[in-house]
């Protein structure tokens, strides 16, 4: 397949591009600078500028654009950046597809577990409905924009959870603390995180390019776990204590709204549609994930 991808330089994008290339696909990366190779194409999503000819003959488009959710506190300006960095690239891609007489057949446009809001009781499946808060609203609009793709294009909006990797993501700030014996659960630690390894995240997104699925798809491991369990498994895997619990007031003081909607979010998400479609996880349980993380750390 020929696949045009935005956000290919990010943690998930890099892993997915590597996965797709290893499977024998051609990946064309959209870049915000002058293209340097035949596998790159310049665009300016902030201005809505994309020469649609890059999409001619493509089988699929993957949209992973977006500023980092947890990189810094959520000021009003930061929330605006988070929103625009997702909606504008998505709008630019769907507009370019609409200008073609024969657009790519598949559009996989990233969404997030934040769609369900900061704190929801019970198991969250794809039909659970939108939650409240910044991320609930942002994810709703993100998915709505993806659905402006032309009629006949299969639109998939993967609602990705917490991606476990030694190269960044949720574990980026936590692993160094754990190795020093300073890490620990956030708040009471009883909140569920819908986790998945970076390897399985890339495999799931690649799977969605050809699977007979459309609309929202929860992307997480089939095993649910709360923060206490995740941190305990990390500490065990890296042979470090994890007793230093970070209280909720301290998180609120440092992170503001980010604390409630990301770090303290309770989302017991279930990958119902992936399971029903027959997707196979490499790391379906936390022990599997920890073993993979240790292997990655040792490289």
What is the strand and helix layout of this fold?
Layout: E1 2-6, H1 11-22, E2 26-31, E3 40-42, E4 60-63, H2 76-98, E5 106-109, E6 111-112, E7 119-124, H3 133-146, E8 154-160, E9 162-164, H4 174-179, E10 195-197, H5 198-208, E11 215-219, H6 227-237, H7 248-255, H8 257-263, E12 266-269, H9 272-277, H10 286-298
Parallel strand pairs: 1-2, 1-4, 2-3, 4-5, 5-8, 6-8, 7-12, 8-11, 9-10
Mean pLDDT metric: 89
Q: What characteristic shape results from the CA principal axes? A: globular
Helix content range: 25-40%
SS field, number of helical segments: 10
- Assigned CATH class: Alpha Beta
Could you say what the CATH topology is called? Rossmann fold
Work out the count of structural domains: 1
Rg for CA atoms: 19 Å
Sheet of most strands: 8 strands, parallel
Whole-Å distance between the termini? 31 Å
Q: Write out the CATH superfamily name.
A: NAD(P)-binding Rossmann-like Domain
**How many strands appear in the DSSP assignment?**
12
Structural class of the secondary structure composition?
alpha/beta
Structure, described:
The structure is a single chain. With 299 residues, the protein is α/β, with parallel strands linked by helices. The protein has one domain (2-298): NAD(P)-binding Rossmann-like Domain (Rossmann fold, 3-Layer(aba) Sandwich), CATH 3.40.50.720. Helices cover 37% and strands 17% of the residues. It contains 10 helices and 12 strands. The protein has helices at residues 11-22, 76-98, 133-146, 174-179, 198-208, 227-237, 248-255, 257-263, 272-277, 286-298, and strands spanning 2-6, 26-31, 40-42, 60-63, 106-109, 111-112, 119-124, 154-160, 162-164, 195-197, 215-219, 266-269. The strands form 3 sheets. Strands 1, 2, 3, 4, 5, 6, 8 and 11 form an 8-stranded parallel sheet that branches. A two-stranded parallel ribbon has the order 7-12. Helix 1 (11-22) links the parallel strand 1 and strand 2 (26-31). Helix 1 (11-22) packs across helix 5.
